[in-house]
Amino acid sequence: MGGGGHRGEQLGSGETSSCKQYTWDEVQKHNRRGDQWVVIERKVYNVTEWTKRHPGGRRVLAHYAGEDATEAFIAFHPDQRFVRKYMKPLLVGELASSEPSQDHGKNVALVEDFETLRKQLEAQGLFRTSPLFFILYLGHILLLEGLSLALLWTFGNGWIITALISVILATAQAQAGWLQHDFGHLSVFKNSTWDHIMHKFVIGHLKGASANWWNHRHFQHHAKPNVISKDPDVNMINILVLGNILPVEYGVKKVKNMPYNHQHKYFFLIGPPLLIPLYFNLHILQTMYLQRDWVDFAWYLSFYVRYLPCYGPYYGILGSLVLLTFVRFLESHWFVWVTQMNHIPMDIDHDKNDDWLSMQLKATCNIEQSPFNDWFSGHLNFQIEHHLFPMMPRHNYSRAAPHVRKLCEKYGVVYQVKGLWESWCDIVTSLKKSGELWLDAYLHK
């Protein structure tokens, strides 16, 4: 999962099946580090060693160890023919004919209807990209970058111009963040090689970050959104406790790394201001060093090779870095409020082994559509459609949404849509509620 290539036929067609058959009980025993099996389209694979080479990172596969990974596999891999050559040597057998295709008592009808919907959307062309959309989108980012330099060259580095440049650059950085997200999900080009190249260009050269770092972190989030210990976006390194379950667990265990009953207040000090300029930057450097990822490091350095000669003559090296830190401080607020408005107020729990549709709808919601909301959030106001179909070009989310809503209504799955301001308020409200749950458990349980 999390690999690349072209969209193709389903994995399994044309493969020679092993004669060994397994029950779900047998498969589910192989769910530990050093012993990991997954099931894809009823075929059983031993992915223990493959996790070390998996393009999406070892943890994504580990999150599905002992489980059926078919829906996640289809969601992340555009070319199953390409992946088959890597999967075939890992094949150890298949499910016994008496075993259901779905594990953990999933609703078979729902799973089949969702797969039918995905095929219908493909037939309608919703997985095809509009090149003009992304050309114009990249163009407006480059235009903002150019505008900031033009202002500096024309008017100098006075305080007013510097403030204006900071806002313009923060806007360019935020929009580049949404664009790298598109390339990272292989949702732009027919040939995913170009997605990978453009991903490194945008996140590395335009933003000064790492594509592999983003892939390994973000695919975990999509594979198991809002699942405690599996989604890194809800693993707040003991600074915040989210949802209704984790706060109580911390309270019962008398864990008090922070005054969690005040987290809805200190969130404004350590969340939006510091995530990108401090935590992300340190984590990116640490990851590139530990993984010896010199290709991404070269792309990372290319950002500074471009940035410092442009701004250094006006602000000096130190002043340019201070300006960049302030830009990332502004961008960080933008990023945090947009990315968390769909998830923090939603259900956060341990893995319930839900089907793909139910799992994603529990963990995310949509924000009302408008031209501004679409642009401001990089179409992440359609977070539901994005999570269900991560390889779908974002300009098609609005066309897919009515079909998704109809399927949700059929099975009683809640399809939630909020206003932008309401969703931001819900972040703070949910943090306050989680803090109160922690305090009650800490004091009384």
From TrEMBL:
Q: How does it sit in the membrane?
A: Multi-pass membrane protein
Name the Gene Ontology biological process terms: unsaturated fatty acid biosynthetic process
Keywords for this entry? Fatty acid biosynthesis, Fatty acid metabolism, Lipid biosynthesis, Lipid metabolism, Membrane, Oxidoreductase, Transmembrane, Transmembrane helix
Q: Does the keyword Lipid metabolism apply?
A: yes
Q: In which pathway does it act?
A: Lipid metabolism; polyunsaturated fatty acid biosynthesis
Q: TM segments? A: 132-153, 159-179, 266-291, 311-330
- Superkingdom of the source species: Eukaryota
Q: Where in the cell is it found?
A: Membrane
Q: Which SMART domains would you find in this protein's record?
A: Cyt-b5
Q: Which Gene3D superfamilies match?
A: Cytochrome b5-like heme/steroid binding domain
Q: Which Pfam families match?
A: Cyt-b5 (PF00173), FA_desaturase (PF00487)
User: Do you know which PROSITE patterns this protein is assigned to?
Assistant: CYTOCHROME_B5_2
Q: Which GO terms describe its molecular function?
A: oxidoreductase activity, acting on paired donors, with oxidation of a pair of donors resulting in the reduction of molecular oxygen to two molecules of water
Provide GO CC annotations from the record.
Answer: membrane
Ranges for domain Cytochrome b5 heme-binding come to 19-96
CDD domains assigned: Delta6-FADS-like
Q: What is stated as this protein's family in its record?
A: Belongs to the fatty acid desaturase type 1 family.
This protein is called what? Fatty acyl desaturase 2
